[in-house]
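Exercise: predict the structure of this protein bound to flavin-adenine dinucleotide.
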Amino acid sequence: MTSAELAPLDADGPSKGLDQISLLSSDERLKGRPRLCSDCGFCDSSLKLLMSQTCTFVRNQTSEIEQRLHGRTRQDGDEGRFGIFRAMHAARMARPNPKAQWTGMVTALGARLLELGRVEAVITTGAAPGTRFKAQPLLARTPAEVLATAGNKPCLSPSLGLIDAVREQGIKRLAVIGTGCQVHQLRVAEAELGLERLDVIGIPCSDNVTYPDLEYFLTQVSRSPHTVVHHEFMQDFRLWMRHEDGHVERLNYIDFPMDKLHGIFPSSCLSCFDYPNTLSDLTIGYMGASLGWQWVMVRTQAGEELFDLLRPDLEMGELSEGGDRTRGMPRFMERLSHPPGQKRPPLPIRKLVAFLQRSRGPKGLEFARAVVEMKLLRNLNYVRSKFPRFESRVVPAHVYATLAPYAELYAQTFGRPLVPTPEERGPL
Ligand SMILES: Cc1cc2nc3c(=O)[nH]c(=O)nc-3n(C[C@H](O)[C@H](O)[C@H](O)COP(=O)(O)OP(=O)(O)OC[C@H]3O[C@@H](n4cnc5c(N)ncnc54)[C@H](O)[C@@H]3O)c2cc1C
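Solution:
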């Protein structure tokens, strides 16, 4: 599809402000949703009456689900940041799929599960007709259908709306490819689905946006937003945007026009504490691996089986790490203490910061630790400032444990303790 065949992008501005309470609250379909909503699709299904018990933005049940899946909760260290895992790998498809987001491990695995008959269907996310990036959930029944959904649709996808189709079609063995908020819903509602097997392939996810806001975002970060065919927030602190003609445009994170982007991220994504999709059977992302490789966390027995099914197609690499993530935290906290949406620093400072980030910043697993910790901290502060009464329900205990090494700095910067006092926490 070329840019000429696509609808024009909307450059008018974000569809909502951060101060507005509910994502897309003007949308008729979303009336009655909780104040934090990532439009995961669950409420489009006949199970919607269960939402108050299943939704991560009503009550985060990570510890209970982990107890059920693993017979324990997280240990200190990397499990706090990345969730419970039994193995971690750097890997890539030996024959990468050129249409994939990275090398195509996720869709190759979904397709393999159907080929082998391990599952009867896969919930995956394709693109709506006439668009490149508008998410359209699909209940794929053939390997070819899964493979056709390769590549990110980097906007909220109401994938769990397909639960009714799963039930109507009598599907008993299902795989779901989804984000953390979707997986939380699924895990809590698992018993209601009447399935004999549920395989959960997780992708990391952070700062997702609605489709109109994705279009707006591209107009703000690219010189040619209409011709972007692929983009990714890379481990070298730059956004890479590939265009129709194959050239890659790169923008330093520090050069993002934050004053223009303020307001595009939904309240739910800013209140999310599951960037690495910790309740999946296995998570396949990239941010803990070196450029060109994918990062895999195998979490459960089922996850081990899934990884083994994909292994013959994989080239295995080495995970590595470098730098010290804790060095950037004081500056990050200082920036967080200012009102959001500030103008960028002057160009020479931005150039210096970009250079330092690339040359001395955290790398490999340390990069993944850095970004997870920063998002935990930013989102904790977001909940505290916008939805303080929700803190005891939506902020899981591992957030405080993981950020504990920064507790003193936190108290100095924000004038309150990291861990809420019993009075602040209120009734559970
Ligand atoms: C909004 C978003 C943010 C992400 N942020 C990070 C990150 O910060 N760090 C990181 O390591 N990884 C992140 N990922 C995951 C990463 O970009 C790749 O999707 C993942 O590594 C799989 O690559 P692949 O080549 O194996 O996937 P492919 O084989 O190309 O398959 C992509 C799969 O992603 C699914 N998908 C696409 N869009 C969506 C969507 N909107 N919602 C649900 N599922 C979708 C499709 O169903 C498809 O199965 C993010 C993904 C999304 C959608």
